[in-house]
Design brief:
The chain is mostly beta strands and about 700 residues long. About 5% of the residues lie in helices and about 65% in strands. A hairpin with a 6-residue loop joins strand 28 (about 615) and strand 29 (about 625).
């Protein structure tokens, strides 16, 4: 068997004399493995089902940040970023950055993943079901983004990227990194600056009592400047201390100009945001003996932003609307864990304390009149405590069970005080059917707490237009948490040439499913979208994955593919009304080819991503929605110029994908209005030059 017993690994790494001047080091994570270990081998031996993305997979397709990378990962759902569409997948996915949750705290704030350049990432780990070691809020799985650590004696990396969106809108970024080691000290510092722009068009066609046809041109500019550092001090062969810190400043500016017929309305919308994101953590690792490991961490994170948005209608009448807002989201916490390897057991127990604060302030003005309400300024607080214990039990060489239990208690104050506590047990099984075949099964109880912004009564006004697709948005202080029981079963086969094929299935039973529901508010005569506990939900599906070398047919040729097929239902607990979960795509898949010409040091390839549509029938509010599937084709080529420099060309979104969504409103079962939205995008290219010395 290609299994390394956990006791032996932990013992070996704890006795290892850490030489920070060596080229290869041992990382002190849950299971100690060499950093250059083969990822498929690690995936095969890991007691929890997970995918690992690293190396060229992170950068070869020209993805600008972590958010874009994760959209290629099957079964992963990502919260929406500002001006970004979420990734289709099987429900929710918790995203961690070096083990710390990175979810944005406000609907106004951009996704933190947009601020993490792909060059900053060492690897991405995707775990498909929750475990006690991580947060109980792991519905849909866990994604852990592991940032780069210092490895080399002294290495400077510079990467300059330039390109054009749609052929004429400039895009540019630069990445600088220096890493080194000196005696017991290792360091890594990087700087990332980007200035990316887009210019797209979209249309809205309304058929009904007030038909109209609106055309829009959308321009967006995102500028960011980020500084990150990782400092490691090895006090002895048994003690190590790490400081992680980063600060990112970003500025987003978007403008939309629209003209509507037949009323000849002309409208200009704008949205300007300035934000700062701070991540910091101080960690310690202590080998108490050959089989005991103690870890602790103190952390502080803060997201703050301010901005203004509004609309100016010049034709047929002059109307102005504006909104100014400020938001602050702050996290302060501490955690610790103790791990023990004894016999056939690897036991880990830990605790976490975390406090969160959020403040939203909004001021709105319509034609010179202040229309701000008391609910537009709100402060919210949350304190969380957690305890967990987990054991990996090896039964011979072919069977591993990982039972665990996690207890979390939360107190929230957002005008009213709420206390929530829950117990989240989990059980994972790994059965090694042969040296290259695994059978995995897991069951986990998970929760999804409403985000603080989902509880906030503060409004975000829709200035472009107000209708089914462009409603005002607000929170709901009466939300309760979702609770789910998730089951997964997976069969994996590992090829001798480092490839894999796997087939898995999942089923999730969800209580108090939260959905964003759009309703017409008769008191304001506007459409408003707010989250609600929609009822009892079920989600099930199948996932397949293939990664295989085709060198037996063509030297240097390889292929990959993955697909997710899913279905869902939700039943209203009060009325018994049953329908699919909103906006659940029927299927999605990724497929690609890569070819390396070793004699020319040239690699090129293509990847196609298709997101299937959905067809939501009439809901409780007499609204239905349908979206057509769409596909995106990306191509790349990179050439090693010499030992120092590498050149890469990316051509992205070659298919210029269009997302078409049709929404209908009904009255007594009769269609009263049909709205067809088409959001178009353009292809763009990027040219990168990377040097390392």
């Amino acid at each position: 068997m290609n299994h390394r017993p956990l006791t032996r690994i932990l013992l070996a790494s704890s006795m290892y004399i850490l030489d920070v001047s060596a080229e290869e080091t041992i990382t002190l994570e849950k299971i100690q493995v060499e950093e250059n270990a083969d990822t498929l081998e690690e995936r095969r031996d890991h007691s929890l089902a997970k995918r690992i993305i690293n190396g060229t997979e992170l950068t070869q397709y020209g993805d600008l940040n972590a958010l874009e990378i994760l959209k290629r990962t099957p079964g992963v759902s990502i919260p929406e970023g500002k001006g970004q569409k979420g990734s289709a997948g099987k429900g929710y996915t918790v995203v961690l950055i070096d083990g710390e949750e990175a979810s944005a705290g406000s609907k106004r704030r951009g996704n933190p993943l947009e601020q993490i350049a792909s060059d900053m990432i060492e690897r991405i780990e995707v775990m498909t079901n929750g475990s006690a070691e991580y947060t109980a809020e792991s519905m849909g799985g866990i994604v852990n983004i592991v940032l780069k650590k210092p490895k080399a004696q002294g290495l400077t990396t510079v990467k300059i990227t330039g390109g054009a969106y749609g052929g004429d809108v400039p895009m540019a970024s630069i990445f600088l990194q220096r890493e080194g080691k000196s005696e017991n000290f290792a360091y890594l510092v990087n700087l990332n600056a980007a200035d990316n722009q887009q210019a797209d068009t979209s249309t809205t066609l309304i058929v009904g009592t007030s038909p109209s046809d609106e055309m829009r041109s959308n321009t967006m500019r995102n500028q960011s400047l980020g500084l990150g550092t990782k400092l490691i001090y090895s006090a002895s062969s048994k003690d190590k201390y790490t400081f992680d810190g980063s600060i990112t400043k970003n500025k987003n500016k978007s403008t939309t100009q629209s003209s509507r017929y037949p009323d000849d309305r002309f409208l200009t919308n704008y949205d300007n945001t300035r934000g700062t994101m701070i991540f910091s953590a101080l960690k310690g690792e202590h080998h108490l003996s050959g089989t005991e490991l103690l870890e602790w961490k103190f952390k502080f994170h803060e997201n703050s932003d301010s901005g203004d948005s509004g609309a100016l209608q010049s034709v047929p009448t002059l109307n102005t609307s504006s909104q100014e807002g400020k938001a602050l989201f702050r996290v302060l916490g501490a955690e610790g864990s103790y791990a023990l390897a004894t016999g056939n057991h690897f036991i880990k127990a830990g605790m976490e304390l975390k406090g969160m604060n959020q403040r939203d302030e909004v001021r709105r003005d319509v034609n010179g009149t202040d229309v701000t309400t008391a609910g537009d300024i709100i402060s919210m607080h949350q304190n969380k405590g957690a305890l967990y214990v987990q054991d990996e039990i090896s039964v011979g060489d072919s069977l591993v069970f990982t039972p665990g239990i996690r207890y979390e208690t939360i107190t929230r104050n957002y005008g009213a005080t709420e206390h929530i506590d829950y117990v989240a047990p989990s059980l994972h099984m790994l059965a090694r059917l042969s040296a290259n075949d695994n059978l995995r099964a897991s069951v986990a109880k998970t929760v999804k707490l409403p985000r603080l912004d989902e509880l906030s009564t503060s409004y975000d006004s829709s200035f472009e237009r107000n209708d089914i697709r462009h409603p005002d948005t607000t929170g709901n202080p009466n939300l309760t948490e979702e609770k789910a029981l998730s089951y997964e079963l997976r069969l994996e086969h590992f090829f001798e040439d480092k490839g894999i094929v796997s087939v898995g299935s999942f089923y999730r039973n969800i209580d108090d499913k939260i959905e964003r529901v759009t309703q017409f508010d008769t008191s304001t005569s506007r459409y408003v979208q707010r989250p609600q506990n929609a009822g009892q939900g079920n989600l099930w599906g199948v996932e397949v994955e293939l990664k295989k070398s085709l060198s037996a047919y063509v030297d240097g040729l390889g292929t990959f593919a993955n697909a997710t097929f899913q279905n869902s239902s939700i039943t209203n607990n009060t009325t018994g009304f049953k329908r699919p979960i909103k906006q659940t795509n029927d299927y999605l898949y990724n497929v690609g080819l890569d070819h390396t010409l070793k004699a020319y040091k040239l690699t090129y390839g293509a990847a196609y991503r298709y997101v299937g549509g959905y067809d939501d029938p009439i809901d409780e509010n007499q609204i239905s929605q349908m979206q057509k599937g769409y596909g995106t084709l990306d191509m790349y080529a990179n050439k090693r110029l010499n030992e120092t420099f590498k050149l890469q060309l990316n051509w992205k979104n070659i298919t210029c994908s269009t997302i078409e969504t049709t929404s209908k409103t009904y009255s007594s079962g009769v269609v009263t209005e049909t709205q067809i939205n088409q959001d178009r995008s353009k292809s763009f290219f990027l040219l990168s030059l990377e040097g390392k010395w």
